Amino acid sequence: MGVTQIALGSYRVMDVCIAATAAIGGPKEGKGPLGPYFDEIWPSEDHKGTSFEQAERALIEDGMELAVKKSGMSWEDIDLVMGGDLLDQIVSTNFAARRHQRPLLGLFSACAVFTQGLGLGALLLAGNSARSILVAAVSHHMAAERQFRFPIELGYQRTPTAAWTATATGAVVLVSGTKHPTAIDAVTMGRVIDFGSKNPNDMGSAMAPAALDTIQRHLEATGTTLQDYDAVYTGDLGVMGTKMLTLLGKEHGLIFDYRFNDCGQILYHLKEQDVHNGGSGPGCSAGVFSGYLHQRLESGEWRRLLLIATGALFSPTTYQQGESIPCIAHAVSLVYRDRGGSSS
Amino acid sequence: MHQEDSDQAKAYQQLVKKTQPKKPILKNVVWAFLYGGMICLVGQCIQTAFMATGMTSQAATSPTTVVLIGVGALLTGLGWYDQITKRGGMGATLPITGFANAMVAPAMEFRREGLVMGVGAKLFTVAGPVLVYGLSAAFVVGLVRYLVTGVA
């Protein structure tokens, strides 16, 4: 067991592994290329005629319930629950905690909240402060539209760089020890980076510099290069954001090659499903990791994965007042070890 | 200097501008023309139908508007109008059916928040600016007309 700070905001953690993951998606996510990797697909965006906010809450409740069940543990074994969402006052995460009655750390870093939770959970577990932590993040397309954009039925044209908030949740049960093959081995907490982007319809460009900053710091701290990972995934930069990150990386001597991709970019058939820049939202990186990425690790196909969820930390008020969009990215690197393998 | 105002930020914004995909303006304009034209054609047919009952063209304007607003509201309720606007853009937003969409969409959306704080308070969230500046512009134009021609 142990946690060591290896650079500013970067930590090496030992003996923290993933006991189980659960991913649930909406109907559109089910029709995307990653549909088969979700544990469950909801048949419609609403949930038994409830409001979209209640649907989002049901989504995270179902996801957490499923993750606990898949881990073979019971709620009583969960020491702490961490998570977040996009709705004001993170109501989905907070209201869901009424049901599970476990100690709660509600987090907010917009769409970066999933790796914030994974990272923070790993630090606590490695530091022996808990034995098992449930991390979850959720977003719901319709609930986010209502809060950030326009009424659902209002007709308007999206710009080519606009993101599509995913209806999805991902939940992960982290435990201390080496019982399970997929482990978290390093964490880098992001700094808030703002390169002056003001367009809420192009969050990929706004977030790319934050992703680059965290990736650079993570690689430097851990003494690795991008090529040391089998896969490097950002959260929801989408088509435009990954393009900007690749260009920025080149300026800084980082080569983002075929190993690099983005959760938002692979969640949908971009053209056929008409999602423009790709998926976004806390549920995007959480759902894609808990379904697809985790399975690629568990199958032994990948041995090392770097996951960097990205978040735009603005509110409708700040951009209406003409302010630029500050962004953050948190990185977590994961390793797959054969069952019973020794920790590094 | 703050990071968001730095030269590095400015250089980055230049790079973003250069990399950004271009909006398909020509395609959008053509679609807007076709959809807008189609809606106007339907409006004209309705007006002609009213005139066939013996109304003058001016008298037929009001019932035509009412029917178009009804159709716009119905299509919004069925969840189709946003699909029309997706393709038609301004061609579908500008006609009176688009105005109906802008009124009915928030009415449907915010009924969960109640009749006063929901529908009542949010009904004009989309159409509000159109009304404010539309009425203001009409006032200015009317004033100029009065001052120039003397006709109120």
List keywords for this structure.
heterodimer, A: 344 residues, alpha/beta, Peroxisomal Thiolase, Chain A, domain 1, 2 domains, seven-stranded mixed sheet, six-stranded mixed sheet, 10 helices, 15 strands, 34% helix, 25% strand, globular, disordered C terminus, B: 152 residues, mainly alpha, 78% helix, extended
Structure, described:
The complex is a heterodimer of chains A (344) and B (152). In chain A, 34% of the residues lie in helices and 25% in strands. Chain A contains 10 helices and 15 strands. In chain A, strands 1-2-10-15-14-11-12 form a 7-stranded mixed beta sheet, sandwiched between helices. Chain A starts with a strand and ends in an 8-residue tail after the last strand. Chain B is extended and about 70 Å long. With 152 residues, chain B is an all-alpha fold. At the A-B interface, helix 7 of A face helix 1, helix 4 and helix 6 of B.
Please render the helix and strand layout as text.
The complex is a heterodimer of chains A (344) and B (152).
Chain A: E1 2-7, E2 10-14, E3 16-25, H1 27-31, E4 40-41, H2 52-70, E5 80-84, H3 91-100, E6 104-106, H4 113-126, E7 132-139, H5 141-148, E8 164-165, E9 168-176, E10 182-188, H6 203-222, E11 231-234, H7 238-251, E12 260-262, H8 263-266, E13 279-280, H9 282-298, E14 304-312, H10 316-320, E15 327-336
Parallel strand pairs in A: 3-4, 5-6, 5-7, 8-13, 11-12, 11-14
Antiparallel strand pairs in A: 1-2, 2-10, 3-9, 7-9, 10-15, 14-15
Helix pairs in contact in A: 2-3, 6-7
Chain B: H1 7-19, H2 25-52, H3 57-77, H4 81-88, H5 90-93, H6 96-109, H7 115-122, H8 127-149
Strand order in the sheet with the most strands of chain A? 1-2-10-15-14-11-12
The fraction of residues in strands of chain A falls at 15-25%
Question: Could you report the average pLDDT of chain B, rounded to the nearest whole number?
Answer: 94
CA gyration radius of chain B, whole angstroms: 21 Å
Q: How does the overall form of chain A come out from the CA principal axes?
A: globular
| The CATH top-level class label of the largest domain in chain A | Alpha Beta
Total helical elements of chain A: 10
What is the helix fraction of residues of chain B, given as a range?
over 70%
Number of strands of chain B: 0
How is the main sheet of chain B built? none
Largest sheet of chain A: 7 strands, mixed
- Beta-strand portion of chain B reads under 5%
Q: Mind telling me the CATH superfamily name of the largest domain in chain A?
A: Stage V sporulation protein AD
Q: Give the termini separation of chain B.
A: 56 Å
Give me the Rg of chain A, rounded: 18 Å
Content-based structural category of chain A: alpha/beta
Oligomeric nature of the chains? heterodimer
- How does CATH name the architecture of the largest domain in chain A? 3-Layer(aba) Sandwich
How many domains would you count in the coordinates of chain A?
2
